[in-house]
Amino acid sequence: MKRLFHPGLRANTVRPPQSGECHNCHAPVPEKFCGQCGQPGHVHVASAHEFIHHFIGHYVAAEGKLWATLGLLFFRPGQLTLEFIQGRRGRYIDPLRLLLTISLVAFLCLKVIPAIDPAPGKKAVPEAAQAQNAVPHEAMPPLQLLVVKAFRWGSASFATNFEHYQALSSHQRNEAFFKLWLAKGPTVALLLIPLIAVWLKLVHLGNGWRYGEHLVFAMHLLAFSLAGLTLGIALAPLADAAWMAALVAIPLYLLWAMRRVYGGGLVLLLRWGAAACLTAYSFKVLMWMVFYGGLAMSPVT
């Protein structure tokens, strides 16, 4: 009974004493950091206030990193990539960390956006009329139809779930696709980065650009695209043109950024357009594969 009601160990008996040696590798630590493994000599568990302060200082970047990074990302397409390639990296947020942070904020916002009511005065289209506008799968683009046929061949439940999805109204199909985007969007976005870099590498063969430099360009492009699409979706219920403006802004941003980073005259416009089209189509194909893969596992409700 005495052991059962024992209050437990006191914290100061668990924390290691300050002994002048590294708690990790036990080497002598005459300075602030261990000369063998690099761990700080003083073991300190941060308080809640210190954790919050560290988070704000690290991500919000009170010293100006965040604002300088976003300023270049949004208002000077391609310049942030150039800064990274040319070695000016300490003053800006790392490309991967920037992309992950924007992705986190974007998908958290998108989880709230569906709760926003549409703009007043818009007439709802009857679901029966929407269902009549469903596009038969025979009229799908050839590559999309090939993806559908592949899933029909590989999954016994896909055909039933796919027919159920096709029978839904346009509003219900859009809602189902939006739910998938919230669940699988980050994965698709990460898969797009190496694909975009491949297209850029092929477009600029012979110019000496490294694949890693194209990866940095792709991460900055995707960070802008996620922020723009999130803003367009958020403003869509208030202004019909917001969503279209976001869709138009992304290819224009891509061309402008490519002009700044890779240089060249108007002769290269065709190359840049090819990279933009391949990037957009890669995104569509990835979304088809992820969405139909979801249908193969469970029906849309």
Description:
- This protein has 301 residues and is mainly α.
- It has a domain at 76-116 and 137-297.
- 64% of the residues lie in helices and 0% in strands.
- The protein contains twelve helices and no strands.
pLDDT averaged over residues: 74
Secondary-structure-based class equals mainly alpha
Rounded to the nearest angstrom, the radius of gyration is 26 Å
The end-to-end span amounts to: 54 Å
Share of helix, binned: 55-70%
The SSE order reads HHHHHHHHHHHH
Using DSSP, what is the number of strands?
0
How much of the polypeptide forms β-strand, as a percent range? under 5%
Uncertain residue segments = 115-135
Shape: globular
User: So how many helices?
Assistant: 12
Instruction: Characterize the biggest β-sheet.
Output: none
Concise overview:
With 301 residues, the protein is mainly α. Helix content is 64%, strand content 0%.
